[in-house]
Amino acid sequence: MKIKVATLFPEMFDCMHVGIIGKAIEKGLLSLDCINIRDYSKDKHSKTDDYPFGGGAGMVMTVQPLHDCVNAIDPAHEYRRIYMSPRGATLNQKKVVELSKTDKILFVCGSYEGVDERFIELDIDEELSIGDYVLTGGELPCMVTVNAIARYVDGVLGSEQSTEEESFSAGLLEYPQYTRPAVFEGLSVPEVLLSGNHGNVDKWRRERQIEITKERRPDLYELIRPRIEEEEAKKQKKRRKKGGNTDER
Fold this sequence. Notes:
Layout: E1 2-7, H1 19-26, E2 31-36, E3 49-50, E4 60-61, H2 63-73, E5 80-90, H3 93-100, E6 104-109, H4 117-123, E7 126-129, H5 139-150, H6 161-165, E8 183-184, E9 187-188, H7 198-216, H8 218-247
Parallel strand pairs: 1-2, 1-6, 5-6, 5-7
Antiparallel strand pairs: 3-4, 8-9
Helix pairs in contact: 2-4, 3-5, 7-8
């Protein structure tokens, strides 16, 4: 996967070159190139912002540097161009998986009060948000998005199971996790996890997922409740059928 980022602050992305994502970049599993929008300004002072027409607080990024930067990076429009914006569609796990299947993505990070609307009309494929709040720029939302996407790139994580079982992958929040020691400060690991019975462990984890999702994210639970009820109905039918077969002579 090739990822390019157009930003006024490329140095902010240095943190992406450490940890799991950094190792993936070193191995060539994905590339992350950051380009300074300011380098494309035709202003003698490399200015990239101006006062908004119609008045209002703050400054707006001018269209020329943005337009020239994006089209220098991606002259043939081979990349999926995404502008990080509070008014964009909200990032969720479904969107993460969708984006992870895209070979080339170009993220554009705005600053100040936003960007000239003509840049979006001319050069952007979609706008994307990470939540209903406003930050000082698009760099942090971009990093969050890149991190989430990169985890689905083949080879980045040690096991595909890591992405299959985690929160949101199946519409449920993740079950509680434990490791050594078995007892700490009087708190014990649930006995079922020490039993060695994988069937019971899976059952316990599933029940905890449903319980936690219902308690902490009732909105998510309501979306998947029909599926859970259908699964439970199938299990009960299977148990009744098995019980009936057992009684037959």
